[in-house]
Fold:
Amino acid sequence: MIILTLRTDKPESELAIFDDLTKLIEIKWLANRILADTIHLQIKKLLDDQNLSWQDIKGVVCYRGPGSFTGLRIGLSVANALAYGLQIPIVGKSTANWQILGIKDLLNGNNDKIALPEYGGEIKITKPKK
Structure:
């Protein structure tokens, strides 16, 4: 099973492609403020390097946090959109060994349907001035 993993909670983002529990390829890049502009290009590059297409992805595992609000928002939006668009399962994890645990969940038939972020604290929203 070809599985895409992604982590976007910090300035250096991570993507990997696994075949079951075997890591085929991984990339880390300083995405910081350009994450939204680069994440799809980086996924496409990984797929191309492995002679795979978007349709070859059969599951998504993502890191849910805690971490950067914007990084998690972008990364999980991409992960959820891929899972929804490709009609494949998604698993989100918040542990140190998130990739392996998430992959094992996928291989055991688990599906979170939607991966929700864990920001690590209450979200602070600025109140309107009027």
